[in-house]
């Protein structure tokens, strides 16, 4: 049974493991350097306006954050456990994150995805996001490769 709640300090170790495993796999996040737990907490717990975790049997199986860009816009980031995936975790997270952004008076959520992240592009399309703009070469990989950034938008 999946449940979703606000992320807390106690979730930082599990969430750090999830994002670092995703980074290590490559190709599905713009983050390329692993997080320490303090760095994770500073950037992905304290900075976002919305930060939620998905749990299955008490185990954190994913997290989602939204940064407030101002003027009712939010920028979303999503990570689920890829070592022991739980079907529906991303959808459950998004249902709560969507409700949270709406309750804050948001106008739209933006998903800024590197063009090489085919899984992320498919996920956000499945959640109802539409292509909004392409920013050519917006992200430079550690090896120097420029990657376009696809910005998808979901009106609230």
From TrEMBL:
* UniProt enzyme class: transferase
Q: Name one GO molecular function term.
A: acyltransferase activity, transferring groups other than amino-acyl groups
The UniProt keywords, alphabetically, are:
Acyltransferase, Transferase
Q: What domain of life does the native source organism fall in?
A: Bacteria
- Read off the Pfam families from this record: Acetyltransf_1
Q: Which residues form the N-acetyltransferase domain?
A: 2-156
Keyword ATP-binding tagged = no
The UniProt entry, under InterPro entries, shows: Acyl_CoA_acyltransferase, GNAT_dom
The protein's name is GNAT family N-acetyltransferase
* Lineage, broadest ranks: Bacteria, Pseudomonadati, Pseudomonadota, Alphaproteobacteria, Rhodobacterales
């Amino acid at each position: 049974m999946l449940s979703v709640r606000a992320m807390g300090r106690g979730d930082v170790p599990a969430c750090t493991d999830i994002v670092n495993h995703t980074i290590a796999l490559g190709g599905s996040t713009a983050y390329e350097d692993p997080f320490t737990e303090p760095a994770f907490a500073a950037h992905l717990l304290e900075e976002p306006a919305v930060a939620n975790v998905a749990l299955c049997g008490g185990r954190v199986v994913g997290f989602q954050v939204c940064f407030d860009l101002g003027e009712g816009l939010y920028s979303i980031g999503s990570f689920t456990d890829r070592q022991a995936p739980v079907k529906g975790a991303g959808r459950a997270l998004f249902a709560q994150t969507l409700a949270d952004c709406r309750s804050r008076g948001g106008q739209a959520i933006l998903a800024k995805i590197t063009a090489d992240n085919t899984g992320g592009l498919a996920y956000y399309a499945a959640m109802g996001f539409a292509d909004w703009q392409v920013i050519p070469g917006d992200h430079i990989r550690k090896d120097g490769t420029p990657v376009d950034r696809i910005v998808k938008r979901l009106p609230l």
